[in-house]
Amino acid sequence: MNSADIATLKSLFATPQSIVIVPHKNPDGDAIGSTLGLAKFLEALGQQPKVIVPNDYPKFLKWIPGNEAILNFERENSQAKRLIEEANIIFTLDFNHLSRTGQMESFLKVAKADFIMIDHHQQPDDYAMITYSDVGMSSTCEMVYNFIDSLDGTDKITREIATCLYVGIMTDTGSFKYSSTTSQTHKVVANLIDKGAENMQIHQQVFDTNSPARLHLLGVALNNLVILEDFKTAYITMSQEELDKYDYNKGDTEGFVNYGLTLEGITFAVIFIENKEEGIIKISFRSVGDFSVNEFARAHFNGGGHTNAAGGRSEVGMKETTSKFISLLHGYKNQLNP
Questions:
Q1: What are phi and psi of 206, to 5 degrees?
Q2: Mean pLDDT over residues 275-285, rounded?
Q3: Count of alpha carbons within 13 angstroms of residue 119, beta-carbon side
Q4: Which domain holds residue 179?
Q5: What are the backbone dihedrals phi and psi of residue 322, each rounded to the nearest 5 degrees, phi first?
Q6: DSSP 3-state of 189
Q7: What Gene Ontology terms describe what this protein does at the molecular function level (predicted)?
Q8: CB 111 within 8 A of CB 98
Q9: CB 234 within 8 A of CB 225
């Protein structure tokens, strides 16, 4: 952020504001961690922000400090719409286009509030009064830490805020293994630990609370793994029937796509997950190196994200979707085999 934006923010927060904080649909660790961390910081400034999520999120994130105060737009629709209508500031975190909020989009588009965006995805839209966008950042949570620092507020970071921000940085960096993890990221994390974030406990809460059903589901996913050696690609399919068999809950397939990248010689991994309720195949793309899954998802599967991590969707069946995917790989063979 520039000095003018910082001055504007300091002036805004000098008096009570009606503030709403919104993450993207199907919020992940970075989305929940950043919204709750920011909300706790704004409370320390004397504000009373409300976090509204478009829909539900995984159980393994529901222990994070402040979770109990989150409003779910799907379940608490009337109250959520009223808060959006009454807000004069709306923060949008971990996304950069209002379409990423699902059914909330139409209400956000007509809101009277000034928008403030904090996000690290590529190609941001221009709806916000203040846009803090940096595609080189590890996570939105690292950006929220910088946001707090720019307002001279790091002395207000409590154990709860530190815990929220640590969750998002840890999950969005793949436990600090992705290339977006910089020395500055580690410095921020060190500061969060100094502020009270218990790194071992946080890791256990997020990653070590599997149900037997989820592990069985992982077995199904790995059994469905297909390796395309000529394209250095691996993909997984999961049907609605397979999900139902093992009592699928939101978040149960989180991280499954990354198993493809653990194979020697594989640089492109994909998972296709059937969602009959929405009538789509949900797709997650991952890569290592220079192959941009963001560009691939944008060009072919109505999606986008980061260079090495992106999402997309298909509105035809699993067979047609995977056939299309395989046919597309022929046009990318040189990029996948540099």
A1: -85, -45
A2: 95
A3: 28
A4: 3-207
A5: -70, -35
A6: helix
A7: 3'(2'),5'-bisphosphate nucleotidase activity
A8: no
A9: yes
Q: Are residues 138 and 23 in the same domain?
A: yes
- Other C-beta atoms closer than 10 Å to the C-beta of 319 total 9
- In a 13 Å sphere around the CA of 77, the CA atoms on its Cβ side amount to 5
What is the pTM (predicted TM-score) of this model?
A: 0.92
| pLDDT exceeds 80 at position 338 | no
Q: Would you say residue 125 has pLDDT above 90?
A: yes
Using the predicted structure, report yes or no on whether residue 1 has a pLDDT greater than 90.
no
Between CA 163 and CA 142 the distance in angstroms is 12
CA 249 – CA 138 distance, rounded (Å): 27
> Of 273, 295, 276, whose CA–CA distance to 284 is shortest?
273
Pseudo-torsion of CA 113, 152, 184, 193, nearest 10°? -100
Cβ(138)–Cβ(181) below 8 Å: yes
Instruction: For residues 167 and 241, state if they share a domain.
Output: no
Contact 120, 135 (CB under 8 A): yes
List beta partners, residue 157.
none
- Judgement on whether residues 97 and 23 belong to the same structural domain of the protein: yes
pLDDT in tens, 174-232: 999 988 999 999 999 999 999 999 999 999 999 999 999 999 999 999 999 999 999 99
Distance CA 205, CA 202 (A): 5
220 Cβ contact list (under 8 Å, min separation 6): 238, 242, 245, 246
> In 3D, which of 56, 53, 55 has the Cα closest to residue 84?
53
Which of 158, 191, 207 marks a domain boundary? 207
Indicate whether 178 and 93 sit together in one domain: yes
Ramachandran class of 196: left when φ > 0, alpha when ψ lies in -120 to 50, beta otherwise: left
The predicted-structure confidence for 12-37, as pLDDT tens digits, reads as follows 999 999 999 999 999 999 999 999 99
Of all helices (H) and strands (E), which one includes residue 274? Answer: strand 268-275
| Among 81, 66, 9, 68, CA closest to 36 | 66
3-state secondary structure of 92: strand
